Amino acid sequence: MSLFRVALGQINSSVGDIAANTDKIVQTTRKASNLGADLIAFPELAVVGYPPRDLLFKSDFITKNLEAIRAIARETKTIASIVGFVDRGADLFNAAATIDEGEIKAIYRKRNLPNYGVFDEERYFAAGAERLTIVVGDYKLGVLICEDLWSGALDSNLSALDAIIVINASPFSAGKSAVRRDLLAARARDLRSFIVYVNLTGAQDELVFDGASAIYDPRGERIALAKSFEEDLLVCDLDLEDSFRVRIKDGRVRAARRGVASEAGEIALNIRDRDKQVLPRKEERSPSEIESVYAALTLALKDYARKNGFTKALLGLSGGADSALCAAIAADALGARNVLGVLMPSPFSSQGSIDDALALARNLGIETRTIAIKPLMDAYDAALAPCFEGAARDLTEENLQARIRAALLMALSNKFGYLALSTGNKSELAVGYATLYGDMAGGFAPIKDALKTTVYALARYRNTLGAALPESTLTKPPSAELRENQKDTDELPEYEVLDQIIRLFVEEDYSLKEIDLKGFDPQVVRKVARLIKRNEYKRSQAPIGAKISDRAFGGDRRMPVANGFFDD
């Protein structure tokens, strides 16, 4: 049989919810069987969710996962499947079970364990050693797990395969979809093989998985693409003979294939002949980069709330771009009726900011409450007057405003079960332009990894979907409004400059002198670098938020808080 119908079960697994994940895998497998698929593949560690982290140190967790993979095999007898799970032998392995006729016929163990950025798989798993080849009639299929395909040193035996099924839990970051597309096309073209790539979707803590499962033919052309940022079942017919047609004309690949012998890790699947009409190609539209980032932030909040038992969220509305964008994301993620915006004006709050916050709420359809904080500010001033006698007003009193607001938000959160959102952006977090236990307080920070310039781009994109942020919110000078006529630029460079320095220093690890050579004022560069270094302690106490860059604060960048190094 040259016509091979493959299904990609792009599911949203929940870490630790093995029973729910198992049920989802079984139900999706049955749907694929009803569509005439010969085989379905699921994402990496689909049974336990990704990344399970230190749950892997719990023996009962591993046992339940093993029971689940056996149950999946028993419940799915009409179609072959490849399912990611945790295998146990002398060690633990990130593995893929090949299931057919109600039995686990073979297990492939991930050979390349990523140990960079947010990945630390060497902490949990041992590397596999053996290859696996699946025989389907006259054709051979391979199985790989994520990094096995991304690794630069590919096994020469892959050239013997007509199709390679790759199961993945590949996190999203801005621009990565293009990198992934180019890699998959190149791998398919170099190996003269179909690349069948199934990716996880959904969000887990700070990680977002964008799905976008895809299939590439032996010429490197994409022939099928699943949806982005949502569950999908992608079914596609592969003409496996096409791999032979292309390969027979490629002397390099033919030569490599001649040296490949049959292996002990070779199994045959009992694929049933079915009368099939070739399916039309399914290729979803790839979203633009700004669409992808907004979708990632929305999905991150939606899944964080759902997987932690929250149905409602609240946040402070200041009239600024950050809180406005967070409110729009929350309304899109949870539904407008499940979002509460709290206005907490002080004597320094401008009428324009109050009007902007109320206009935003009307545009989004979210509920608002207003709690004026001047009486609380006066009470703090009176209580601290004996201690502060003779001391001038300074940043201390400004921070008290932020902490009063945080206390009010957390009180409402505790009383009514709202998820409290912190609305700070990456630029502020980088240089410490945020108040610890004040505006940094909250359970989740939706735009934690979005630089201020990105915030404005996201806000303008959101307004193309429907009126949300008032134009005045996007055009007025940014201000925390903690003192009279305050502007962010009183303490910081313009955000267009600041964000470029942050990108170079934090995300690219440029030295200060290397940044100088990019044309920036050396004094400004050193001021920003010192602020970044000085405020590591704040970031170590910040709530988690969605990762959308290649280098987010947190798991991506692990700097010591007590740090005597300065590279100038």
Overview of this structure, please?
- There is one protein chain.
- This protein has 568 residues and is α/β, with parallel strands linked by helices.
- The chain has two domains: 3-268, 4-Layer Sandwich (Nitrilase/N-carbamoyl-D-aminoacid amidohydrolase); 289-539, Rossmann fold, CATH 3.40.50.620.
- 37% of the residues lie in helices and 18% in strands.
- The protein contains 18 helices and 19 strands.
- It has helices at 18-34, 59-75, 147-150, 176-191, 241-247, 251-258, 289-307, 321-334, 351-364, 374-388, 395-416, 426-431, 452-464, 471-475, 495-507, 512-516, 522-534, 536-539, and strands spanning 3-10, 39-41, 80-88, 92-100, 103-109, 133-136, 139-145, 163-168, 194-199, 201-204, 207-210, 214-216, 222-225, 232-239, 266-268, 313-316, 339-343, 367-370, 419-420.
- A seven-stranded mixed β-sheet has the order 13-12-9-8-7-6-15. Strands 5-4-3-2-1-14 form a six-stranded mixed β-sheet. Strands 18-17-16-19 form a four-stranded parallel β-sheet, sandwiched between helices.
- Strand 4 (92-100) and strand 5 (103-109) form a beta hairpin.
- The longest helix is centred in the last third of the chain and has 22 residues, at 395-416.
- The chain is elongated, with a radius of gyration of 27 Å.
- It starts with a strand and ends in a 29-residue tail after the last helix.
- The model has no long low-confidence stretch (mean pLDDT 93).
